[in-house]
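User: quick one, fold this
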Amino acid sequence: MCPTTAFGQDDFYFGGGTRTWSNTLSWWQNYQATLQALSAPGAADTAVFNVGGQTSAGVAVLANDTSVNRLLTLTTATGGLTIRSDGTTRSLTLGPRGIRVQAGSLVLGGATKATGVRPSDA
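Assistant:
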């Protein structure tokens, strides 16, 4: 059993492209994208955007209200990240570690689906 399975995973790596946040197939346990995550990141976790071999962090679609401790885009994510809803206004609650954008841009909400993401702090 790997340590993340036995003790809980803290860092979740987004798979790039346009993916639904709550779908476990959107997330990896490692930067190399070789170990599929067993869940999506939650209130105690860090959502890391970008995996090996990608220059765009992609589009994360919120299909429900979501909480995460920290959002992090890596220096390799020069294409930027958009977090948008599935068409219904959603809340994205951030924990004390907040947001860190190392490269590219971060857009909350987006043009593809009308409306919003309401950021809030824990």
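User: anything notable?
Assistant: The helical segments are 3-7.
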